[in-house]
TrEMBL record:
Family: Belongs to the 2H phosphoesterase superfamily. ThpR family.
InterPro entries in UniProt: Cyclic_Pdiesterase, RNA_CPDase
Chain location of the short sequence motif HXTX 1 per the record: 131-134
Organism, as annotated: Deinococcus radiopugnans ATCC 19172
PANTHER family: RNA 2',3'-CYCLIC PHOSPHODIESTERASE
Function statement: Hydrolyzes RNA 2',3'-cyclic phosphodiester to an RNA 2'-phosphomonoester.
Segments of skewed composition (Basic and acidic residues): 10-31, 65-75, 280-289
Region listing for Disordered, in residue ranges: 1-93, 266-305
Active-site residues, record numbering mapped to chain: 131, 216
Source organism, top-level taxon: Bacteria
Catalyzed reactions per annotation: a 3'-end 2',3'-cyclophospho-ribonucleotide-RNA + H2O = a 3'-end 2'-phospho-ribonucleotide-RNA + H(+)
Keyword Hydrolase assigned: yes
Protein name per UniProt: RNA 2',3'-cyclic phosphodiesterase
EC numbers on record: 3.1.4.58
Length: 305
C-alpha cells in the first residue's frame, strides 16, 4: 500500500516539471531577437527579366503595329478607292541622255510628208522628235549631267557650222525584217564630232552605246505586220549651228525628249562655193522621189534612236 501511494504522488510532480520546462522554453524564445522577414520576391538572376521588363518589347511591337496601321489608312485614303494602297513615289537617280543635232522645220516638213506613205503598224517619229543622234548614253547619274554639259561646250567651241545633207532611206537591221525606217545623213566633220563626244564621255567613266556611229534620222518604228516602202531619195539639207544634250523620258506612247543643254559651233563658217548653173544648191529642197533607188544600208549600221 505504501508503494502505491508513492507512485501516485510522483505523477503530479512530473506533470508540474513538464509545465515548468515548457514555460522556460517559451521565455527563452521570447528573449531571442526576431528573425528577419523573408523577401516576398526572389532576387533577379543574371540573364533573367522581370515581368515589367518583359512587357517593354511587347509595348514597342504594339506601337509599331499601330503606326503601320495608320500609315496604311493614309495610303488608302490617298489611293481613292477603299482598300487600294497608293504606290510609293520613286525618284530616279539615272537617266537616258544623248547628244544630237536638231532638225529644222524646213527639213521636217518634207520628211513628214514622206511618212504619210507608210501603211500598217508603223509608229512614226513626230516632227518635234526628229534629230541626228551623235552619242547615246543609256544610263547617266543625274548628279553628273553638269559634266556632260561642260564636255559638250569644250568640244564644240572650236567647230564651225556643219553643212548637213540627207540621202536615201533604209531599214534596220535589214530590209527583210525591218524594225526601223530611217534616212541617212551626211556632213563633213560629223563623224569626228561623234567620235570626240564618245571618247570624252568614256573618259568621264560614263557608259556609252557600243554600236558604231551611223548618222541618220529615224522616221518610223515597226510595231507589227506592215508593208515596206520602196527606197526614197531626199535632196534636203541645212546648216547646223550647234548641238544639244537631251534627256529621253520613256512613255507608253513613245519617248519624250527634254533639251537640257545647247552648244554653239563658235568657229567661223567656211565659205561655200557657188553651185554651177543647172545644179542644185547645197540647201535646195525637193520632194522625195519614190521611184529612185537609195543606197543600201551598211550591215553593221546601228539601230537608230
Amino acid at each position: 500500500m505504501k508503494i502505491r501511494k508513492t507512485q501516485a504522488r510522483a505523477k503530479p510532480e512530473k506533470t508540474r516539471a513538464s509545465d515548468l520546462d515548457v514555460a522556460l522554453r517559451l521565455r527563452r524564445e521570447d528573449a531571442l531577437p526576431a528573425a528577419p522577414a523573408q523577401a516576398t520576391q526572389a532576387p533577379v538572376q543574371p540573364g533573367q527579366q522581370t515581368q515589367a521588363s518583359a512587357d517593354v518589347p511587347r509595348q514597342a511591337q504594339e506601337q509599331k503595329a499601330s503606326a503601320e496601321f495608320r500609315r496604311r489608312q493614309e495610303h488608302q485614303s490617298a489611293g481613292g478607292r477603299r482598300g487600294r494602297v497608293a504606290p510609293e513615289q520613286h525618284t530616279p537617280t539615272t537617266g537616258r541622255f544623248f547628244y544630237a543635232l536638231n532638225v529644222p522645220a524646213s527639213v521636217t516638213g518634207p520628211l513628214s510628208e514622206a511618212q504619210r506613205k507608210l501603211k500598217g503598224n508603223w509608229r512614226i517619229t513626230t516632227r518635234e522628235q526628229m534629230h541626228v543622234t551623235l552619242c547615246y548614253l543609256p544610263s547617266v547619274p543625274l548628279a553628273r549631267v553638269a559634266e556632260l554639259k561642260a564636255l559638250g561646250t569644250r568640244l564644240t567651241q572650236t567647230l564651225g557650222p556643219l553643212d548637213v545633207r540627207l540621202r536615201g532611206t533604209g531599214y534596220f537591221p535589214n530590209e527583210g525584217s525591218p524594225r526601223v525606217w530611217f534616212v541617212k545623213v551626211e556632213a563633213e566633220g560629223l563623224d569626228e564630232l561623234a567620235a570626240a563626244l564618245r571618247a570624252g564621255v568614256q573618259a568621264l567613266g560614263i557608259e556609252t552605246e557600243e554600236l558604231s556611229f551611223k548618222a541618220h534620222i529615224t522616221l518610223a518604228r515597226k510595231k507589227g505586220p506592215a508593208p515596206r516602202l520602196p527606197p526614197l531619195l531626199f535632196d534636203l539639207g541645212w546648216t547646223a549651228g550647234g548641238a544639244t544634250l537631251q534627256r529621253s523620258h520613256l512613255q507608253k506612247t513613245g519617248p519624250v525628249y527634254e533639251q537640257v543643254g545647247t552648244f554653239r559651233f563658235q568657229a567661223p563658217a567656211q565659205s561655200q562655193p557657188a553651185a554651177p548653173p543647172g545644179e542644185d544648191s547645197p540647201h535646195s529642197t525637193h520632194h522625195p522621189d519614190a521611184n529612185s533607188p537609195s543606197p543600201a544600208p551598211s550591215p553593221e549600221a546601228q539601230e537608230p534612236s
